[in-house]
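ENCODED BACKBONE
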Amino acid sequence: MLIANNEKISLDKKEAGATIDFISHAHTDHMSALSTARSILSSYQTIELIKARTSSSNLFNINLDFSELGIKLLDSGHILGASQLFYYNEQKSQSILYSGDFQMQSPFIGKRIETKNADILIIDSTYPDPEIKFEENSETKKKIQDWVLEKIETGNIFFGSYSLGKAQDIIKILNEIGIIPIVNRQTCAINRVYINFGEDLKYASVYEADSGYDEIMSKNFVGIVELGRLNSLKIELTKAYKKRAYTAVASGLTKIMKFNSDATFELSNHADFEQSIEYIEKVAPKKIFTYGTNKDRFARNLAKLGYNASPFESNELNKV
């Protein structure tokens, strides 16, 4: 927990005693504090994405005026609206940066990450091991485009994807080669938020009139579906259309998990270990706290390289 001007700020999770809950972005694993938060601190884009994803009655507790707390939100390069939290403690002459989920590569949609020097860095630990290294986004994009152009000649294609972030990246990649994909209701709602914030996404759906759905479905098409329904839909639609259906998963998780699909692409909007080191060098902190599920392993691996790193605990910030 971060204490700023007597306010206790939780970081992407429920914490007892928090007076403000920082939600770095609108992925569900970062929104656990939403239902009980007394005050929510987020970017405008994140709030709109949360509205599109949930029916929470707690969104009136939004805190968008945080200048008095000495807090600034910085783009993290993860998904639309994803933010880092920067806090300068004037009393201690000490700066703190919480990364949230981030990547150092240029994202397919949105702004590149903004880095800032800080005395203390609290860093995400999604990919804590040096063995994990993602290829360049431009290489992954070309592989996806080449595969789609080849397979769509002989059948329909289905990408298993999360509705927020990854689906929009895939839409953007497909639009570049003249393909308008079919998407589900949840992805439609999220796409509208992206478009309202200036992103150009072309897609079709039975849930939106005049989207070109019927015409696209009359030919070989690309669909973006929930990951859990990928293979059942493949079977259903192969029978329905009496033609081959190809499946693909585009995710950084393909580096560490096996998926039952025809193709996998390491499309990630997270930092791998090498990117995390690049980020740390730019921030140049005196102390690093690793945060999240893999914080212990990440701290050990950073310590081996000589960094002053340890796993984050709520009361640790009071000791530095």
In short: The chain has two domains: 2-131+270-319, 137-265. The longest strand covers residues 83-89. The chain has a mean pLDDT of 92. The chain is about 25% helix and 20% strand.
